[in-house]
Amino acid sequence: VTILPLESLSIVIISFAAEFTSGFAAAGALMQAGVLTTKQTVLALLIGNIGAFPMRALRHQLPHYMGIYEPKTGLQLLLLGQSVRVASLILIGIVYAIML
Predict the structure, then answer these.
(1) H-state helical runs in the chain
(2) Do residues 43 and 4 lie in contact, with contact meaning Cβ atoms separated by under 8 Å?
(3) 32 vs 1, 19, 25, CA distance in Å?
(4) Do residues 20 and 49 make contact, with C-beta atoms less than 8 angstroms apart?
(5) Distance CA 71, CA 2 (A)
(6) In the predicted model, is pLDDT for residue 54 greater than 70?
(7) Where would a tag sit more exposed on the chain, N or C end, judged by fewer CB atoms within 10 A?
(8) Rounded to whole angstroms, how far apart are CA atoms 25 and 17?
(9) What is the pLDDT of residues 6-52, one digit of tens each?
(10) Do the beta carbons of residue 43 and residue 5 sit within 8 Å?
């Protein structure tokens, strides 16, 4: 059994290209059809979320931070916050993959 089969790639791509909730819909359909296990689905959603962070951060958060703080400070806050977020998602994903 592979950790992430090729079918899970669609969840990653949908999460990256569209909003995160679209990835949930695709994941639910694949799980209901029996194509993916719960573990594979969770890991695919985590990977899609991690992969989509730069686009979402630039589109949603960067204008917000730069509107409140100086541009340099806003960018630093964005990068720091997103780095911590991605690192925690990777850590949780590794722990989840090992434990289950």
Answers:
(1) 9-17, 20-32, 38-56, 62-68, 71-99
(2) yes
(3) 19, 21, 11
(4) yes
(5) 44
(6) yes
(7) N
(8) 14
(9) 778 878 777 777 676 777 888 888 899 988 888 888 888 888 888 88
(10) no
Which of 5, 2, 4 is closest to 93 using CA atoms?
A: 4
Comparison of pLDDT for 74 and 45, the residue scoring more: 74
Structure tokens that stand for 23 in this block: 């990835």
What are the phi and psi torsion angles at 88 (to 5°)?
-70, -35
pLDDT given at position 83? 93
Tokens of 48: 């899609």
Structure tokens at 40: 């594979």
> Residue written as tokens 């695919």?
44
Q: Give the sign of the dihedral formed by CA 6, CA 7, CA 8, CA 10.
A: positive
Cβ-Cβ contacts under 8 Å for 47 (sequence gap 6 or more): 4, 12, 93
